[in-house]
């Protein structure tokens, strides 16, 4: 490979690593613990609140989440049943959202929230 081609490849990888936008992360997870709907709802609400999400139950099996950090906001919907839950992007401001892409910090928020929900669900099962 000649030097100019190698330089071009290195530049592409460097710019890709610095990309601020990534595909929007939506989560779908199974719940293997044998928990009641209220236990699942409470685990999700606690995980969200601890991660600085404003969590609002709007119907059985549905919770809306809102997070503001400085001038950035994100809205999500969490649906759940006795066997699974899903975290879905709804809307955002100042997170460079468009064409299925969003600022990478949004995905980090969702990954952290998902991880904490899983921990809360696991601890609910252990405490039974």
Automatic annotation (TrEMBL):
<protein>
    <recommendedName>
        <fullName>Lipoprotein</fullName>
    </recommendedName>
</protein>
């Amino acid at each position: 490979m000649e030097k100019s081609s190698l330089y071009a490849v290195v530049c592409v990888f460097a710019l890709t690593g610095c990309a601020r936008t990534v595909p929007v992360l939506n989560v779908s997870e199974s719940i293997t613990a044998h928990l009641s709907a209220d236990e699942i709802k409470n685990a999700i609400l606690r995980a969200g609140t601890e991660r600085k999400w404003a969590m609002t139950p709007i119907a059985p099996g549905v919770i809306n989440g809102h997070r503001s950090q400085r001038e950035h906001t994100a809205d999500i919907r969490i649906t759940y049943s006795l066997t699974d839950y899903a975290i879905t992007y709804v809307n955002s401001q100042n997170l460079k959202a468009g064409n299925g892409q969003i600022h990478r910090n949004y995905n980090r928020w969702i990954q952290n929230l998902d991880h904490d929900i899983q921990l809360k669900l696991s601890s609910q099962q252990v405490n039974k």
